[in-house]
Amino acid sequence: MQSSQTWIQALFYLALITVSLYFLQFYILSDRLMVSHHKVTLKKHPNLPLRFNSDGTFKILQVADMHYGTGLTRCRDVLTSEFEWCSDLNTTLFLKRMIDAEKPDFIAFTGDNIFGSSTNDAAESLFKAFGPAMAARLPWAAVLGNHDQESTMTREELMSFISLMDYSLSQPNPLDPTKQQVTTNIDGFGNYDLRVRGPPGSHLANQTILNLFFLDSGDRAVVDGFKTYGWIKESQLSWLRGASKVSLTGT
Ligand SMILES: *[C@@H]1O[C@H](CO)[C@@H](O)[C@H](O)[C@H]1NC(C)=O
Ligand SMILES: *[C@@H]1O[C@H](CO)[C@@H](O)[C@H](O)[C@H]1NC(C)=O
């Protein structure tokens, strides 16, 4: 009799401990382990395919060298009198004004989007730098300069991250058409091809009439002891030749 009571008590305590641990993990620890408290959302895609408009236009806004820091990083190369009142936010404002004024069909960000020495969180800077393009729900794509990878992400990580951002058409590297995998035998990160079709309802509606080739021109480099910048390598040109032949033959 005595021993069966002890057993019941032991089981009761065991159950109590299990339930407590479960609640501790579920309500307290899991919250801390989450990256953020934001609801997980899926990447938003722009309307595809890219197309010329009915009036025959396709307007591209090209933006380079935003050198974005934290969002509040001070401007460089402004008058001393302007310094106090000039930050990354002015870049954001400028980009928004350009988008409103020009109403582009596509935005191409061509490097030094963020500035390594002014940020210690590349992801946060990327969100802020490309924010206006995402807010405008415009299709956009980016490649890297030599400053983008100078903080917390490598060039490969940056291009993967950028490719996952809302409305982004960026790719780390082209898909190998035979294997349906990302091509690995190509230098750099951010080599890809975007195709733009003819206007809706026209006889070119289902054909690519413009190819936008993006190439990674690399980071800094040292050649024969001299500090210089990277360049487009033979592997990239070889891909470019192949891809442009494919698009010329209309597939
Ligand atoms: C930056 O934006 C602020 C706020 O709109 C403005 O007062 C300031 O003049 C701008 N700075 C420059 C250099 O344009
Ligand atoms: C383009 O493709 C759509 C859908 O398959 C088809 O309805 C349309 O007739 C095609 N247009 C031309 C010009 O080939």
UniProtKB/TrEMBL annotation:
Q: Please name the InterPro entries in this protein's record.
A: Calcineurin-like_PHP, Metallo-depent_PP-like
Keyword check for Transmembrane, yes or no.
yes
Q: Where is the Calcineurin-like phosphoesterase domain?
A: 58-196
- Give one GO term, molecular function aspect: hydrolase activity, acting on ester bonds
Its GO CC terms are:
cytoplasm
Q: Does the keyword Transmembrane apply?
A: yes
Q: Which residues cross the membrane?
A: 6-29
> Which Pfam families does this UniProt record tie to the protein?
Metallophos
Which keywords does this Swiss-Prot/TrEMBL entry list? Membrane, Transmembrane, Transmembrane helix
Q: Which SUPFAM superfamilies match?
A: Metallo-dependent phosphatases
Q: Tell me which PANTHER family the record gives.
A: INACTIVE PURPLE ACID PHOSPHATASE 28-RELATED (PTHR32440:SF2), PHOSPHATASE DCR2-RELATED-RELATED (PTHR32440)
Q: State the name under which the record lists this protein.
A: Calcineurin-like phosphoesterase domain-containing protein
Q: Which organism's genome codes for this protein? A: Lactuca saligna (Willowleaf lettuce)
